[in-house]
Amino acid sequence: MFQNEKEFAQATVEKGGRLYRVGGSIRDELRGIKPKDDDYCVTGFSNQTFLNAFPSAHQVLDKNGEKTVDVFLLKVNGKTVEVALARTETMVEDSNEGYHAFEFHADEDITIEMDLYRRDMTINSIAKDLLTGEYIDPYGGIQDIKDKVIRATSDAFYEDPTRVYRVAVRYAIDEGYEVEERTKVMMKKASRKLDKVAINRVVNELEKALLSPRPDKFFRLLQEVDVLDIHYPWVNNLVGVIQPEEHHPEGDAFEHTMRTLLSMRKQSEKAEEIFSMLTHDFGKYLTPLEKRPAHHGHEKAGVPLVNEMCNALKLPRSWRRAALFATEYHGKFHALGEMRIGKVVDLLVKAERTPLKIEGFARVGLADTRGKKDPNAKHPNTKFALLAKEELLKAKPNLSLKGRAVGEDMRRQQIGDVKKLKKQLIETNELKA
After folding, report:
1. Within its chain, how far is the Cα of 23 from the centroid?
2. What is the mean pLDDT of residues 274-282?
3. pLDDT in tens, 243-255
4. Does pLDDT of 97 surpass 60?
């Protein structure tokens, strides 16, 4: 419809309004980062007057397929973009849905400053007038970008408790940024209604955190402001759980988990693999106090806790399957070189049938090691596992056999091939017997 932003901005003025680019795209622009999406806001319109001014606009549908009253789709520079009316919002309690319903107010009298006031953080509360190129920054977001500070924009922060998680996600994404102290206090206060937030919104922020550059910072901040136990009690339970110092010089089980989480993120871009490191030591919390710091059997003990978390948060099936396997068998990976070949084959075949695959299982073992030692350490069993997979795939079914005999014959082939591989690696000092 419009060739560029300038043309859209001019048409908006002619219709009695004003066009702004807002939110994350402006934040990224000011930081010299190419924005992923362009979000627009217009002032001077009600829902009906905007549709009258731009009849080709389409209203965005909500999750129930109903038209929203203040968000529209238009084409600008060949792309379909979202255009929102400047608005104020109030969160309302919905007995069926939880604290995630909002009442919006959008009309000709809402200013861009009023719209920016309701946004979560100052670095997201900046607008750009697309006719003049002027930045509208009533809450000091530009200075906070320069100072690398994450700060709540206003007391409107309390309207949506999910913003507690958004701040933590932003902290995990933006290297070098610090959360302002008053905002930490606001996070704690806003968390009083976090347990009422719809679970899908919680999981949405969790996935962003896991895929951020520093997922450990997300959980560290939540623990610091004392809200980790609301949706992540299984993680919070690891705080203060001591471990054998000779094997875990890094400290308690929470610290170890955070380090393994970061290590896995450096290796993987798959949410299920990163999540598996978050859960892998849940069972250590169940170790009786008199038996600590040793945690024998914590792997199997953690399995019900992983299921408990996945059920409570309604997590994706792939996350559950990856986490269950990593939790129950991560200790076995460290013993791979000492195990009987038949057990090695069975374990790796089982790993290959999970979302982790053998490659992901190897990353679990490496992350676990790096979480308690040098973050750049290598694992002697990594090469063994990856090369063993190649040997497992070489096995061919004997079509002259029938039923279970086919699988048993393939397993014999696999055991023979992996046994030869192990011998070669031992002879070259690449694996310890």
Report:
1. 20
2. 98
3. 888 888 888 999 9
4. no
CB count in 10 Å sphere of residue 87: 19
Place of tokens 């004003």: 18
Spacing of C-alpha 319 from chain mean position: 12
Residue 197 has phi, psi (to 5 degrees) of -70, 140
**Residue 40's beta-bridge partner residues?**
21, 83
* CA dist list (Å): 295 to 257, 282, 377: 15, 11, 23
pLDDT band at 259 (very low <50, low <70, confident <90, very high): very high
| Bridge pairing between strands 127-129 and 135-136 | antiparallel
pLDDT value of position 64: 58
pTM: 0.92
- Average pLDDT of the segment spanning 20-25: 94
Q: Which of 140, 135, 100, 138 is nearest to 123 (CA)?
A: 140
In 3D, which of 263, 249, 327 has the Cα closest to residue 293? 249
- Strand-pairing partners, residue 75, are 80
Helix (H) or strand (E) holding 67: strand 67-76
Q: Enter the CATH code of domain 1-139.
A: 3.30.460.10
Report d(CA 177, CA 115) in Å as an integer: 25
**Contacts with 288 (C-beta within 8 Å, 6 or more apart), sequence order:** none
Domain assignments of the chain as residue spans, ordered by start: 1-139
DSSP letters spanning 128-182: EETTT--EE-TT-HHHHHHHTEE-B-SGGGGG-TTHHHHHHHHHHHSTT-EE-HH
